[in-house]
Structure formats: structure tokens, C-alpha cells
Design brief:
The protein is of the alpha/beta class. It has 2 domains: 129 residues, 3-Layer(aba) Sandwich (Rossmann fold); 179 residues, NAD(P)-binding Rossmann-like Domain (Rossmann fold), CATH 3.40.50.720. The protein has 11 helices and 12 strands. α5 crosses α7. The longest helix is centred in the C-terminal third of the chain and has 21 residues. The structure holds 1,4-dihydronicotinamide adenine dinucleotide and 2-oxoglutaric acid (AKG). The site of 1,4-dihydronicotinamide adenine dinucleotide has 34 residues, from α5 and α7.
Length: 320
Amino acid sequence: MIYTVLIPDNVDQKAVDLLEGTEGLNVVYTGKLSQEELAAQAGEAHAMIIRSGVKITPEVLAAAPNLKAVARAGVGVDNVDLDAATSHGVIVMNTPGGNTISTAEHTFGLMIALARYIPQGDASLRAGRWDRKSFVGVELKDKVLGLIGFGRIGKAIARRAQAFDMTVIAYDPYIEPSAGTELGVELVQLDALYAQADFISLHALITDETRGMLNTEAFAKMKDGVRIINASRGALINDADLAAAIESGKVAGAALDVYEPEPPTEDNPLIGMESVIHTPHLAASTSDAQVTVAVEAAQLIINTLLHDSPQNVVNSAVLT
Ligand SMILES: NC(=O)C1=CN([C@@H]2O[C@H](COP(=O)(O)OP(=O)(O)OC[C@H]3O[C@@H](n4cnc5c(N)ncnc54)[C@H](O)[C@@H]3O)[C@@H](O)[C@H]2O)C=CC1
Ligand SMILES: O=C(O)CCC(=O)C(=O)O
């Protein structure tokens, strides 16, 4: 039996090489496909390796009768319809941990860039100005960093923030309060985090509970001049409410790596605002992280198809 592995997004070549060098696999590496192209190519696939650029929808699953497994080269599986995958008997796996450091470092870069107006200063100088008055920032030292979500990435940021003499607090209702002790992080209630934090960085999973959690009601509970960083998922923030909070001066600025939808639509109220800085979902985009997650995803597919040994299964109901 020869299994076909379709890779409909851009992944590191080392993963492709690993799969191509494995007997029993036929590898189809297309690079990033549109949803229509994906559905058209899905018919032969026994497995797929994806990133965040494609969605595994009921339509794609219906077009993929041979599909047994999907491996996400990354953490978030919000681009996979897990219920539909389970009902089609498709195992969904991810590679948590492989991009933690890259994402934490990018988040830290965004926080410093936000505090010191680095992108704005760069744009101003490139436009021929020598403006030092407009870009007076704030130090991170002695500021309170509030982390919403204290998992792998939240913890990695806490470690880095300590080196900058920040006080770190976190809200995460799904971990033990003692989880912060070793890192000197106090786990607090959400309203307390809003009331104390000078910087709020989002690292929670996107769920029904967290979708749109940063809204007008939440901003009203925050300190005046708070700065927001989001390298988790765009849907955690209500964009219109954040734009209004920035316009009113309540929020001093925001740094965003993620959007809902991606790419953001032309009418996104945050794009182009002077005090909002952006990257296009780049937090995990380092050569280091991309080798790790892609090779790990390839190995998950090999173990599943050839050794009947799936790991990191996200929709565990499919195994019962
Ligand atoms: N921008 C990018 O390129 C990347 C984004 N991500 C995203 O970052 C996020 C975090 O990733 P990891 O730290 O690896 O995941 P993780 O699973 O280690 O941590 C997520 C944490 O969110 C917490 N959480 C769940 N519901 C919550 C709620 N209602 N309020 C507060 N916390 C809640 C969980 O208890 C968990 O501790 C994910 O959404 C992931 O998709 C991850 C890697 C790269
Ligand atoms: O594939 C990527 O670069 C996105 C990574 C990401 O968002 C994740 O791992 O959740």
C-alpha cells in the first residue's frame, strides 16, 4: 500500500525530504493552496500536513474520502473543523512546543516596539522627517505585564519579562494557582489583571469563552494608557471596541500579529491607526521553529500511517 501525503501549505523542505525518503509514501507538496484548490486535490490524500493558511472544512473532508490523518505544523487547530474530522474518522494532531520560543520572542519584540514606537519612528525617518518629540515611549522596567493564558508561550514570556524587571501577573482559570510560583508570577482573577496591568498580552486558546473577550466592557476595567499585545488569535479581540478604546485614549496602543479573518479585511478599523503596529501572523515564522514543527508533523504522519501509532491527537474521540 502506498499512502499519499498532501502538503497544501508552505512547510520546511526538511519535512518534505523526510517524507519522500520514507518507503510507502507518495508526497504531493503544492505550497499554499486556495480552499477550492485544496478540495480539488484532496481526493487522493491519505494524510495532510497543514499550517494556518488552509482550513479543513466539512467541504474539504467530504472531498477527501481516503483521508486518515491531518497534522498541524504548529499549535492552533482552530482552522480544522474538529467535530467534522471526528465524524469522518480523521485523526487530527498538532506539534505543541516547537514554536513556543519563536512566538514568545516575537511577542516580546512587539511589546518593546509598542513601548518605544519603533515602527512609527522608522516610518517617520523613511518619510524624510527627523522627529524625536512624537515618539517618547515608556520603559518596561517596573511595569506590570498581565498575561491572559499561562500555558507554554505565556510562561516563556514571563521568564523573559523577569529579565526586564517587569512584574508579571497572569489569568488562567484552567491551571493551579501554584503554577506561577516557580516563575514568581501571581495568578490573579481577570478583573484584577485588568485593573493592574500596564501591558496585557494574550496567550489563551480561542474558545467560546475567550472569543471577543477584549471588548468595551473589558477595556473599561483596564488602567488608562494600557497597551495590548496579541500574538494568539485575532478573534480574542473585538476590533471595533479596541479601535474605539484607542481613539478615546483609554488604550495607548496595540501590537497585533493575528487577525480575524486572516488576512484582515480592508474595513478592519485597526489597520492604519497610528498607535497600532502589525505583523502578518509571523510569530512562529523562524527557520528554527519551522524546521522543528514541520519535521515533527511529518514524523506524526509517518507514525500514524505506517506504524498505526498516532500521537498528540487533538480529537481523541476519534480513537474510541
Ligand atoms: N502567532 C503565532 O504564530 C502563534 C500563535 N499561537 C497561539 O498562541 C496560543 C497559546 O499557545 P500555547 O501557549 O502553545 O498554548 P497552551 O495550550 O500551552 O496555553 C494556552 C493556555 O490558555 C489557557 N486558557 C484556556 N482558556 C482560557 C481562558 N478562558 N482564559 C485564560 N486562559 C485560558 C489554557 O489553560 C492554557 O494554559 C494559541 O492560541 C496558539 O494557537 C501559537 C504559536 C504561534
Ligand atoms: O503556521 C504558523 O506560522 C502559525 C502558527 C500558529 O499560529 C500556531 O502554531 O498556532
